[in-house]
Amino acid sequence: MSVTLTDQDKLTLRTAAYGAVSLLVAADATGKPHKIATDGSLALGSATGLVGHVLAEKSKPVKLDGKSVAELADHVLPALTATMSLLAEQAPAEADNFRSTVLVAIEAAQQVYQGKPGPTLVEMVRKITAALDAA
Predict the structure, then answer these.
(1) What pTM was computed for the model?
(2) CB of 89 within 8 A of CB of 41?
(3) Segment holding 115, helix H or strand E
(4) Nearest by Cα to 72 from 82, 80, 84
(5) Measuring CA to CA, which residue among 20, 9, 8 is closest to residue 86?
(6) Which regions in the chain score pLDDT beneath 50?
(7) Which residues contact 10 (CB under 8 A, 6 or more apart)?
């Protein structure tokens, strides 16, 4: 089965994936947001399958701005759920691929904490995982 995603679907997928990393950066308490962003983005760049192709495309930039973490979360968390729903409907294997890609990016971003993430980051990871599982 061939999966065809619209430009909007692809933008939502990229917003969800890169937005998850951005939420971790926003929840950072280490003072090393650049390290979290780099490690998370590198993990997303290693994605394979349809998800990897969409994340690697050069297209309209993803807008991940907000005046607060709440505004960013209002945009990103629904995008995570929407992407999972879309992929589950069109290509269940790619839904699993997307979920694992985002979770690997989260794990990579948490490396800066050397196994000791603070409660703020733990809660943000919980919210991201809940959004992935809400579909």
Answers:
(1) 0.92
(2) no
(3) none
(4) 80
(5) 9
(6) none
(7) 54, 57, 59
- Write out the two tokens for 88: 């589950």
- Residue ranges of the domains in the chain? 7-133
Residue with token string 């690997």: 104
Q: Which residue has the tokens 């890169």?
A: 18
Give the separation between CA 104 and CA 77, rounded to whole angstroms: 17
Separation between Cα atoms, residue 57 and residue 37, nearest integer Å: 19
HSE at residue 110, side-chain half, CA atoms within 13 A, is 18
pLDDT of residue 115: 67
Helices H / strands E in the chain, number of each:
6, 0
What are the structure tokens assigned to 27, written together? 């929840």
d(CA 118, CA 23): 14
